[in-house]
Amino acid sequence: MNPLQQYQRHLSRRHFFGKTATGIGTAALASLLDRDGNLRAASAPNDVRVPGLPGLPHVAPTAKRVIYLFQNGAPTHVDLFDFKPRLQEMHGQPIPDSVVNGRRFSTMTGDASGKVLLAPIEPFAQHGQSRAWVSSLMPYTAQIADELCFVKSMHTEQINHAPAISFLLSGSEMPGRPTIGAWLNYGLGSETDELPSFVVMTSVSKGTSCGQIFYDFYWGSGFLPSRYQGVKLRGSSEPVLYVANPDGISRQMRRSMLDDIAAINQLKANDFGDPEIATRIAQYEMGFKMQASVPELADLSQESAETLALYGPGVEEPGTFAHNCLMARRLVERGCRFVQLMHAGWDQHGSLTTELYTQCRDTDQSSAALVMDLKRRGLLEDTLVIWGGEFGRTPFLQGDIANRPLWGRDHHPYAFTVWMAGGGVKPGISYGATDELAMDAVEQPVHVHDFQATLMHMLGVDHERLTFKFQGRQFRLTDVHGHVVHGILA
Question: What is the pTM of this model?
Answer without folding.
Answer: 0.87
